[in-house]
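Can anyone check this?
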Amino acid sequence: MKFEKSPPWLVELFGDALAATPGERRQMFGYPCGFLNGQLFCGLFATSMFVRLCEEDRTALLATEGARVFDPMGGRPMREYVVMPPALLDDAEALRQWLSRAVAYASALPPKKKRATANRPPTKKRARR
């Protein structure tokens, strides 16, 4: 499946906003995303920015016109993630506050353990190649 690229202005906005957080920038599905302790907490997908929030904050953001549940594949929504309304992307203070809430939520989650793939013995499927 080929995805639409994020516009340069949105990538720049995301980079500037992420730089103000303790998050680490990584690519996921070809888009820049923010991770904290291995947990995804924000990112871009096509022409939109999403954040990962606790239930209370999700409810508040979803009450904002233009916000919606993040459903990148259509029919398989990511339950803790909300797409930021376009109007909030133009409001630097609001964007900072929502990213701050996403950081707080990701900070409260247990750190993800890194997968050890380099030293893992090959599976039958990989050994056949």
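Reply from J.R.: I decoded it. The longest helix spans residues 92-108.
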